[in-house]
Amino acid sequence: MDSNLSRGHGAVSIRLVRSRDARVLQNELLTNRAWLQPWEATSPRGAGTIDMRLSIRRLLQQHRDGGGVPLVIEYAGEIAGQLNVWGIARGSLESATIGYWVSERFAGKGITPTAVALATDLCFFELGLHRMEICMRPENVASLRVAQKLGFRYEGYRSRFIHIDGDWRDHYAFALVREDVPDGVLKRWVEGRVPPTAGEIPAA
Ligand SMILES: CC(C)(COP(=O)(O)OP(=O)(O)OC[C@H]1O[C@@H](n2cnc3c(N)ncnc32)[C@H](O)[C@@H]1OP(=O)(O)O)[C@@H](O)C(=O)NCCC(=O)NCCS
């Protein structure tokens, strides 16, 4: 896969994670425990320790194998969090899923929606993917807002879908396909053309 995956809009940019980001990322994870833990993926096989160096090595190996695009999110040149495109399925699916976090001090500045828009456009228009999915726990209002702002379409409820914070948790699934955004996710959002009802969750 191409390793020149940097993109930016305003003060927000995304780029491929590097081994030398380990120290900064590990420090952010450790100083943001209470903020991140309720939403953090865990292993059903038991608790592991945070080893960023190992985690980045694994992510980059998956990237070389074509399975993912592990990015960091930067704000004004400072690492604000991570955005991971994972589970890339090629062939008749051409689909992937996005996960993300930012440190608490960067929250509420529109950084994540910008990064998700940049990453989705990169995947659709340069890496040839057709569908991008975002899943979150129903109680994660902030993450729900990210999907809704960008007009990801609500696609359903997945019971006990992902192991988060020590147990199998129900999730909402949202998705976009390339035909939804012929001019790109970012352009549609910044030009205020996201259909107002796109991300609505049906009452039933
Ligand atoms: C979910 C998350 C990535 C959103 O990122 P962000 O860059 O703050 O996104 P936005 O700036 O668009 O804010 C999204 C929502 O967060 C909430 N929010 C805003 N400022 C906030 C703050 N200071 N603290 C907490 N939540 C805040 C608001 O509900 C906002 O929606 P609104 O703009 O309609 O009011 C971020 O809250 C986060 O990293 N949370 C912890 C990890 C996590 O939940 N990851 C996602 C797992 S699915």
Could you characterize the architecture of this molecule?
- This protein has 204 residues and is α+β, with helices and mostly antiparallel strands.
- It has one domain: 3-Layer(aba) Sandwich (Aminopeptidase).
- Helix content is 28%, strand content 31%.
- The chain has helices at residues 22-31, 33-36, 52-64, 111-125, 141-149, 185-190; strands spanning 7-9, 12-16, 69-75, 78-89, 95-102, 131-136, 153-164, 167-177.
- It has an eight-stranded mixed beta sheet, sandwiched between helices.
- A hairpin with a 2-residue loop joins strand 7 and strand 8 (167-177).
- The mean pLDDT is 96.
- Residues 35-36, 39, 100-102, 107-113, 136, 140-143, 145-146 line the site of coenzyme A.
